[in-house]
Amino acid sequence: MIRLAAVGDLHAGTDSVGRIAPHIADAAEHADVLLLAGDLTRIGTIEEIDVLLGELAAVELPKIAVLGNHDHHAGMVDELVERCEAEGVRVLEGDAEVVEVDGGTLGVAGIKGFCGGFPGTSLSPFGEVDIKVFAEVAHVQAARLGEVLCGLDTDHVVALMHYSPVRDTVVGEPLEIYPFLGSGLFAEAIDRAGADLVVHGHAHHGTEHGTTPGGIPVRNVAQPLIGDCYRVYHLNGHHRRS
Amino acid sequence: MTDEFDTPETPEVYVVAHAMAALASDPRVGMLDLTVTVAGDTITVTGRIETDERRRAVGAVLAERFPTHRIENAVHVQSDHRSGGEPEELS
User: Tell me, what's the ipTM?
Assistant: First the structure.
């Protein structure tokens, strides 16, 4: 068995000092790995990521993250990633990390994800160049996530995202903004490659539990949604391949 | 879009849009999921926020952007997250 702790949307700011650590420091008692599903910060500044990294320093676990849209806002993504990696937080964007724990090997494929909507009402790369460029982002990223998942040869596999890959876990948000909360292209890529679990954030008013059309569990761990400072998942048995 | 455009006579739907844009783009707030409603000369903002400092920033940003409106800052501060929780068993 592998034990995962996961949370997204911590939205650390310069006013978060001492507010996160007391609630997350005990994660190592319950989990083997901590997954951070994006929106680590409020607006993506160096000062904010430094606050978060200070809060996470007490968590003695492998820490794996993706960034979210808020982390991109200040245009300092490279600097944020550099800071995270220097402090032991692995940041994934179209790549993977393998962790060996007592329960076996865990492969985490991570990507931020993107907008576009879900099957039946999704955006197609048709018409104006601007629309094509926008829609193509999700197509390219989903294909990349599928490649990364297929390249993992571990006992268990988790897909870590910020945006949702399924409609299930955005239900509760205003219907009008569903296309801005995720893209079903990622679920299709995950179903083709296989995984044990998908973890994401972003939809603060969404739904915690969902599944891909192929039956893979999807969990929305946006902190404002779950209320707890993290969720814990036990991966039992063997990795499922489609 | 000018400040004088956003008066109590401005169609409410535009005021809502401008208020939400201000809360998203102002670095003191940077939030996308607060709810804004407008009734006459009153702008009401609701939702959940992490700290008192951010709650005060919400009120300040709206007061600066909409000086001729009354601001009702009903944002709730919630920072007492529970630790952990029961694990979910997945096969």
Answer: 0.90
